[in-house]
Structures are given as C-alpha cells and as structure tokens.
Give the backbone structure.
Amino acid sequence: MLSLNVFKTQAFRTVLVYLIIFALSAVAMVGFVYWNTARVLEQQTDETIGAEITGLVEQYQRLGLSGLTDAIISRSSRSGQGLYLLASPDRRLIAGNLDAWPQIEAMGEGFIEFVYERRIAGTAELRRARGKVFTLSRGFYLLVANDVHERREIERLFTTTLPWSVALMLALGLAGGVLVSRNMLARLDAINRTSREIVAGDFSRRVPSAGVGDEFDDLADHLNRMLDRIERLMRGMREVSDNVAHDLRTPLTRLRNRLEHALSHGPRDAETARDLEAAVAETDRLIATFNALLLIAEAEAGSVRESMEDFDLKPVVEGMGELYMPLAEEKGVSLRVRAEPRALVHGNRDLVTQALANLVDNAIKFAPPASTIDVTLASGARRVDLIVADRGPGIPEADRNRVLERFVRLETSRNSPGTGLGLSLAAAVARLHDATLMLEDNAPGLRARLRFKPARPSAGGARSPAR
C-alpha cells in the first residue's frame, strides 16, 4: 500500500517536476554547447578548404596545369586530413591522394560530402569527407576536401547516447524520488495514523518523533503540544459538564417534584392549579433541554467510544415503532415500520436509539393529520440506512444545514413545542459513528436519512449484536 501511495505524494511530484526541468535544462545546455562547437569546427573546415582552393587556383593561373599537378602531389604526400584530386574533363585521375572520382552528395553553399576508402594500418576503411569542387579552365576539375569522419562519429555517438543518458537520468531520478517519497510518506503515515486514533476517541495518543530534529520532528512537537492543550480543555469541559449535571439537574428535578407535590395536595383555586401545571411543564422542558445538551456534548466529545459494540438495528427500529405508535394515533397519523431481517452496525445503541427517537418525534410533530410516516431500515453491502419520511411542510434546501445547529428553529415550527436540539443531537450522533445525516425532499415532506457503515465481521465471524 505504501509503494502505491508513493506516486501520489507531493514529494514525488516535486522531485518529478524538478527532474524533468533538470533533464530538459541539461539536454538544452549540452545540445547548445555541442551545436556551437560543431558549427565552429565545420566553419573552420570550410574556411580551410576555401583557402586551399584559392591557393591552388592561383598556382594554376601562374604555373599552369603542370605547376598545379606538382602542388597537388606535394600536398597529397603530407600526412593529415587533407584530400586532393585533379581530374580531366572526363573525370579521370591526374593527381591526388584519392583513387577515383567519388560519389558526391551536395550539402549546400557549394560544399559536398562523400565516402572514400582509406588504408589505416594496412586495413581498408570507409571514411567520410567534406569538400568543394572547382572547375578549372579547359574543363579540368579540382576537388579539395578534409576528412571529417571523427567529427561525424562524434555526432552519431552524441545523438545515440544522449537519449540513453536522459533515460538513465530519469530512471535514477525517479528511483531517488521514490526513496525520498517513501521516507516522507512513512513519516506522514505515522502522523495520519495517530490522527485517526485521536479522532476515534483515544486522546492519549501522540505523534511519534524520529529524534533527528528535522521539520517533521518540529511538526510532531507542535502537534503534541496542541493535543496536550486540547486534552486539558476536553477534560475541563467534562468536569464542567459533570458539575453542571450535579448542580443544576438535581435542583431542577427537586423543583419539579415539589411543584407536583403542591399540585397533588390541591391548590386553593383553578388559576393556581393552572400555574402549577404550567410550571411543571416548563420544568420538564428545561430538564429535557438540559439532558439533550448533555447528550450532544457527550456525543461530540466521543467519550462513549469505548462502550461501542456491534448491534442489530432491527430491534431498535421495531421498538421505536411500538413506542411511538400510540402518540402517532393520538395525533391522527399512521406510523409504518419496515425493517430488514438483519442490519449490524458498530456504535452506541442508546445514542442511536435517541437519535432515531428525535427524528420520529419530529416527524409526528409536523406530519398533517391522516398522513403516513414511514420508518425504514434498509441495508446494503456498503451502507445501512435509517430513514424517517413524513408528509409535513419539509425543510427548504437552503436551511437544511442550518437546522442541524443548536437551538435553530424555522418560522414554520415557531408555534410547535420543542427546543431546536433534536436534529442537532441526531447530527452529533451521526458524526460520532462516522455516519451521515441527510435531509432530503420527500415531495412533499422531509426524508431524514441516517446512513451508517455496516459492521465488519471479526476474524472469528460476526459478533453477536448487543442485547
């Protein structure tokens, strides 16, 4: 897996881009130097050939054919790269160090190239020469050339080896890029692995340090200090929640009990009785709001992750149907429950049950009389869906993200009882379980979909659902 991810890393892409730029720059630089060197050498050769032709033509003009012949014989006897040939109008050899008139190739600007045979250490060898042909008076031909075989071999060698050199450069660079990327990816994997464990609820985890003092060690140090700070804040939040639970919920419960006690002992008049009943109802709403906030804080803190286990959603859905059937009948709506035979998820049963209860309660609250509410459990290979669909006013698409925040209530629900925390709790439970809460149009109405990942069977087979 690591080797496959190497090619997707930023480090590998950076090395690859740098390598391509370097290879192109190196090829351009070497090619420019070679082109200029070859051009200068060819220019020198052409100037030498031109100067020799000029000198020999002057010799011919002063001394005639015999003087030119002597000059060519003299120059041909020297060792060097010069090639000379004086030929008759029918191109028969008169003098020179070429055996016969060669098969020439026109190269432009009056220059020619040809292949000739030359003996080196007693062995005949075909070589390449570059020169010029000058036509003398009376139809005689003068050919002057220089051996450029070594230069052409260097050109051939350059054009042959350069692509292989570039390929080798790229191969070595890619190998280096893979090594660099593997090292960097291994360090990043350690950070990502620790991050995943922290997200899963293990706040004691810390990013490992290699101890070499590089940028990754600095990053690990900063992250660990940040995690220490977050852990202290989370611990403080839990302590505050516990204190609030002790200091507020208990007095509220006592207040409600005293109000009920006063109501049960018969108030002096009907108005006082109504006030006491209203106070009890308000106290119930305060306690419900308080409990919902604590549940949301507990879900967002992830403190219940250790108690998560595999359980079957079917009994949860069926139990929810039995629980809310009387309330639905009282409201004049039909509650229809459909569940798959078995749908295992990994999570906290109580929180998932509470999230589903909030969705069903919202649906009953906003569903019009004589309508139907569908509670459906559907599972597939990669997902388990809990769906609650009603025929109420629904939620406009522009407000669907906003209603997941705490205490947000739309204008259509202002006159309905509630705290604006039901969908917030469902969203917090979804985040805790790595699930997704989707609010969709039911045309008309709202379709709330909680999508979970199915539980993975353990090595010994699927675990039995918690009862």
About this structure: The CA atoms of residues 311 and 465 lie 4 Å apart. The first strand starts at residue 82 and ends at 87.
